[in-house]
Specification:
- This protein has about 375 residues and is of the alpha+beta class.
- It has a domain at about 45-310: Jelly Rolls (Sandwich).
- It contains six helices and 17 strands.
- The chain has helices at about 5-25, 30-40, 270-280, 285-290, 290-295, 305-310, and strands spanning about 50-55, 60, 75-80, 80-85, 100-105, 115-120, 125-130, 135-145, 150-155, 155, 160-165, 170-175, 180-190, 195-210, 215-220, 220-225, 240.
- The strands form two sheets. The chain has a 15-stranded mixed sheet that branches.
- α1 (about 5-25) packs antiparallel against α2 (about 30-40).
Length: about 375
Amino acid sequence: MSRFFVLALVLCVLGLSAVVGQRDAETCPEFVHTALHAVASVCEGIERNQVCHASFRVDAVAREPDTPLSFAVGESVGIDQVVSLRLSPLDQARDEWGVALLRVQANLPDTLPGQNVTFAAFGDTELTPLLSGDPVHYGQTFRLQTRIGGITCSGAALDGLLIQSPEGSRRVALTINGVDLELGSTIFVQAVAGDVMTIRTLEGSVIVRTAYGSSIVLAGSEVTIPMNDELEPGGAPALPIAYEQENLIALPLDLLDTVIAPAAPLTEALLDTVIETIQMGDLDDLLELAVLEEVSDPILTSVPAVITALPPLVPTLIAPLPTLIPPLPTLPPILPTLIPPLPTLPPILPTLIPPIPTLPPILPTLPPLFPKWTPRG
């Protein structure tokens, strides 16, 4: 099948679906998914650190001004060749809806060339890859701007950025608008200058950090980060809240490497547990738990699995089990004293022989043998 035939099919699907979409707004999600099913095949061969022009219209600004950049529908270029991507909003009358696909390495090792982070940017969105890391590369830091208030499908916005980390990999580190993200999940991001950046976690979890504070966003919840006019964070992430699932019904999830269904909104009970953990300042400890790293190696695919890892950090929610076996009584000494101590024995031998009396001198004192000599006068 030639590329021209595929492009003709895309146009046909977009044109036919546009008529249906104009006739009944409630069929808009069907129009979106039908169109994306066709355009996904256009970018089937996209490689690591490349961006593909998936659907009309995506304008790319070349990094080298004097170098012509061919970037028609179905073509891919290296991220390092692009300064920014400007996507067109949904325009059913003109059969236009900008869609771009990116596969980036981020912090994944070179030893896993088939493992990439998938970006799907669509609608009234501008995405700019920024220099980062050492050695310098373009796959980890981005600037994102979306313009909310355009055409929607059944109340769902069709402008923003889907990000999905690969299955079976370590957690991926990205920076968007100065906000550090650590994710093992699929998230939907929108950012409005002078307002907020919103991160919704469709499955798994994402840690959100700014210079002002941190938060965690589990599947079924969302957080907002205040943005100044330059799309830089102006404060800490807000506490998570449950997202509204109807806002996600038209997302182009078919473009992702692993098609997922958005999680149900997080319940109040689980939200309370997560919020209490954040307020206790245990966010870093939460990431270090070994049990957390073992969940889906370590992509977190379900809220219950994450909450299972929380009890060491949060207050005890369940009273400890009562003592089932009373302690053993104090046992008496193992052996009583069976033999009394021996009495003191008398001296071994009495004195049988009296001491020997003092004997007189053996020989009496004898007179001198010779008288004392006196010299003559």
